[in-house]
Design brief:
By secondary structure, this protein is mainly α. Helices cover 83% and strands 0% of the residues. The chain is built from 6 helices and no strands.
Length: 141
Amino acid sequence: MSNASIATAKSGLSTNASALTLAGRVLLSAIFILAGFDKLTAISGTAGWFASIGLPLPTVTTVVVGLVELVGGIAILVGFQTRIAAIVLGLFTLAATAIAHTDFADPNQIMFLQKNLAIAGGLFVLAAFGAGALSIDGRRR
């Protein structure tokens, strides 16, 4: 295989990796953007649920959680400070899982736990490898 052929093959792999990373960021970010927006536009309802599971300062907690989800999700979407945002959201997801999804007698809670573990795993992979070329982070290099 010639050097030109190898370079072309590597370029194609790089383009595919960038597109797949972008697709992954879009899919991972969607759940956080929507959840954050929902919390911030229904503060009293979310605060009521947070109070019912024993979280302190439920209104403040709602606003903080909503902002973490919304801002973190947007950062992942556009690829800005992606590694930091992915770590924060990954740890946040694990904490939320430990707080709200540990009723192992409820099959729905087990499903939420498994989903959240998979999301956290995807976020940690994103933190390890970065946002890819099709991102603000990629343009700043």
